[in-house]
């Protein structure tokens, strides 16, 4: 009988403790709903760590952040408090997407810098993030307003010489100079590549310059990962048409060691350019006699975009719709070279 009363008392005591615990949990949940400053929410890192106390007494800090994010890549940023509201200073350079109450993923879009700001209940912190380019692309808009017929070595240490800058061809229908067309395409390509996450270095951005072919190569060697030389073709026969890509072959005595990468760059651009424009594919051509190749120390390709001496191609290459397709094709070729496009 005595044992029976002891058991009943023990059961009653357990029931009382259970009721107190239950009331406590209800009270906590009730307080959380009523008072927004009190949080009993679990964090979102799946470790079920409880966040206790008032937000007023807690400092807002980053628990994960990055100084650099590459264009086309994603990185997670996180703070220690729930209810975070995020803002990026320039949506053209980077975009953000909410994961949960404390985390976002930031995607790099264009080369540059942004400030990432977080607010939680009157608290505010920020961090600067550098958006790194996919690569640095050099663009050489071939020719210039006036030719330079002075001579320079065809390659480093060579006794063979060529003129510094030729005059180029001219449109049979438009009357436009090759140098002008090359610059139009180069400037549009610059903007397209920047939009795709590349940093771009231009040899020239105006017609009135005097830069030799060796100087052009040297300028891009200093800052760039690859070099694209923009040109158009010409012939005495107005029926000849099509695009070709030139590159330094393995037999090149100056840059033969970069022939493989240059060939890959040229073939990627040729494929995508033809897909976008529908211009006849005249293939890949190895050249040892181009000063702009021979002074390069980075992978390099030269595109002959089409024949300005062919009526239909000349008009196509000067039309706004044609130039858009040409620029899109070259840019996609760069994307394919770096593995961002199939």
TrEMBL record:
Q: What Pfam families does the record point to?
A: Amidase_3, T2SS-T3SS_pil_N
Cite the entry's keywords alphabetically: Hydrolase
Q: Which GO cellular component terms, listed alphabetically, does the Swiss-Prot or TrEMBL entry include?
A: outer membrane-bounded periplasmic space
InterPro entries given in the database record? MurNAc-LAA_cat, N-acetylmuramoyl_amidase_3, T2SS-T3SS_pil_N
Gene Ontology annotations of biological process type = peptidoglycan catabolic process
Q: Which SUPFAM superfamilies match?
A: Zn-dependent exopeptidases
Domain named MurNAc-LAA: residues: 209-335
Superkingdom, natural source: Bacteria
Q: What is this protein called?
A: N-acetylmuramoyl-L-alanine amidase
Source organism of the structure: Eubacterium uniforme
């Amino acid at each position: 009988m005595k044992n029976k009363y002891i058991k009943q008392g023990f059961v009653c005591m357990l029931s009382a403790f259970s009721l107190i615990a239950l009331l406590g949990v209800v009270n906590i949940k009730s307080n959380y709903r009523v008072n927004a400053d009190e949080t009993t929410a679990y964090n979102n890192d799946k470790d079920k760590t409880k966040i206790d106390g008032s937000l007023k007494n807690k400092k807002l800090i980053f628990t994960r952040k990055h100084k650099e994010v590459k264009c086309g890549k994603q990185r997670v940023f996180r703070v220690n408090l729930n209810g975070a509201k995020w803002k990026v200073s320039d949506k053209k350079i980077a975009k953000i997407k909410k994961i949960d109450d404390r985390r976002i993923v930031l995607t790099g879009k264009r080369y540059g810098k942004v400030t990432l700001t977080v607010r939680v209940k009157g608290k505010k912190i920020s961090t600067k993030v550098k958006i790194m380019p996919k690569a640095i692309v050099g663009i050489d808009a071939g020719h210039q307003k006036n030719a330079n017929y002075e001579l320079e070595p065809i390659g480093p240490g060579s006794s063979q010489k060529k003129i510094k800058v030729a005059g180029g061809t001219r449109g049979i229908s438009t009357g436009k100079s090759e140098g002008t067309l090359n610059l139009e395409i180069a400037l549009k390509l610059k903007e397209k590549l920047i939009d795709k996450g590349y940093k771009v270095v231009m040899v020239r951005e105006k017609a009135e310059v005097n830069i030799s072919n060796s100087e052009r190569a040297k300028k891009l060697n200093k800052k760039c990962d690859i070099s694209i030389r923009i040109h158009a073709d010409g012939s005495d026969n107005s029926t000849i048409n099509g695009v070709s890509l030139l590159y330094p072959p393995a037999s090149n005595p100056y840059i033969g060691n970069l022939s493989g990468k240059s060939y890959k760059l040229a073939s990627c651009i040729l494929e995508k350019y033809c897909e976008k424009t529908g211009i006849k594919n005249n293939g890949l051509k190895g050249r040892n006699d181009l000063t702009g190749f021979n002074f390069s120390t980075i992978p390099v390709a030269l595109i002959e975009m089409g024949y300005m001496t062919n009526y239909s191609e000349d008009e196509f290459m000067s039309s706004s719709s044609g130039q858009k397709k040409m620029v899109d094709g070259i840019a996609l070729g760069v994307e394919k070279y770096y593995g961002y496009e199939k």
